[in-house]
Amino acid sequence: MAQVPTLIGHAFGVGTGLGQFSEAGHGRFVTALLSLVQLLPLFFLLAAALALFAPRARCHFVERRYGLLPPDHPLMAPAAGAPRAPGEVPEPHFHDEMAAFLTEHAPGTQLRFSTQAGFSARVYPGGWRVTRIGVFASLVHLWEADVEAARAVLLHELGHLRHGEQHVAGLGSPFTALVRVWPYVLGGLVVVPVTLLFVTGNATAPLTLAEVVLVLFSVPKVLLLVVAALWSAELGADRHAARAAGADTLVRALRRLEEGDRGGPARLYHPPAGLRIWFASRAETGGVLLLLTLLWPFALLTQLLLTMLGAVPAYVLLGASWDRASREVLALAHDALTADPAWWATLAVVLVWPLATGVRSSAGARSAVSVSSRVYATAVLFPAVVLLVGLLPLVSRPTGDVFAEGHDGHATASTGVPGGGGGGGTSTVCPSASAPPAPTRPPGLPSFTRGSPTASGDAAPHQSDGPQTFRTLRVTSVEALSGSTAQAQDVGERLRGARWTLHGDGSLSADVAGVPVLRGSGTDGATRWFTGQRTEHTAVGTTTTWTEARLVVGTDQSPRLDLIRAATLAMRAVVDCREFTSTSSTAQRFSLTLSGQ
To answer: By C-alpha distance, which of 125, 67, 132 is closest to 98?
Structure first.
């Protein structure tokens, strides 16, 4: 929940920047989709957290979705068999055999049955204090063929129950739903719009590509931690089944069922059958226990590596050299070791683990998890060493320009190093924080064809002439010369209803903010030309607005005012003795119909 506002703000920021380069808004559309991809996993995680507080609703959904029915349901009643001889004891139905097995190992656990295939058995909550196990057709067939192997499958589900994982994993879990739908989300919200963007040749494609790279690397980052948690739960449940039923029996069950692990990326919420078989056959060895214990911190390290792999090409696409990008990312990764609260939380959880495992499980048996002292010491040292590496001054952030000098469309950084910060120059005095100088007029702006600049003749204004006032009746046309159409329309809205004053000295002013006083530059009969410029300063920015105007005041038609407006914003900031500058420009053309007053 804390990350959602940051990602939304990032999306608006990037979208606004891309909008300055694309009037059609394609870049902002793609950026919105990419931001949705980043937000979607957070919504799944939030749904998983909320599902903990609604176990009954999840139970109803799961049983309706998979057709799970109680054993006494008419559809689940055993088929009528052959007539029995007098005194012959009927063979117990598999419903009764499974229920008796669960009563022996986990009293109170309820069974539900489904005729669907694809699963063997899955655990899910039936309420706050009730757990149910859904049995599917595959397990029923296995029970009839190899009852010991089928019991090992049920013991695997009871391993989830001993660890309390039925509320987080199992049927109906948003965690598993996230893994299942992610390939389709990736294709629909990333691959398709980005491909269309490049096919259309939109100008924002090079800038969007950097954002695409970061999003594509964030996808496995999100899945990595969820998959690592789910795999850890599955392997832990396999260990419980191997200890209770025997490793050979569990391996036989996994080879017979293989738990649907050949379903591609959508089955990532279960480890591959080959890995589970290897793990089950070595469940009590020190190496396997160490792997299971360190699976989570290894996932955190891999997540950091994926962040680095995505950041380096993104820096390069934004104008940085490969060498500078690599050193910058390495320094950021070093800082992230201590900034990421996950490492501190991991160390804290491992330290209190002996106290946590002293609490008996809901099954009333001994501690659900046990590891050797050597494995536990390694589990403590791993995050401790990582945090120590992050605390030691082993890597420092490089000085000098991050991006190449003069790379268009991106911010540049300068530290006063001769030659723009390249080579082996040394830093000079830290630059002072001040607003940048006034920017120059953007090149290529159109201009009105002007009349004679002389001040003689009847059409030239005189000091004794009284002022004439006009009011904007309507904005007849709005054209974006550079920047977005939305920016041009915003300026046009401000010009609606504006009051214009033609002064006796030949100047033209308006009661609208952002319109400078326009000085007369030429006349030709009923047509007057004006130019104006205004510069405004803030602590870190300077904005200059240029305006050209043509006023036509005839006797047989309403007055008309044509405007060409351009604005350039120059930003400058000094952070850690480094100067960051950026420049953005917009230009518009307007035609207004006035009324004389």
So the answer is: 132
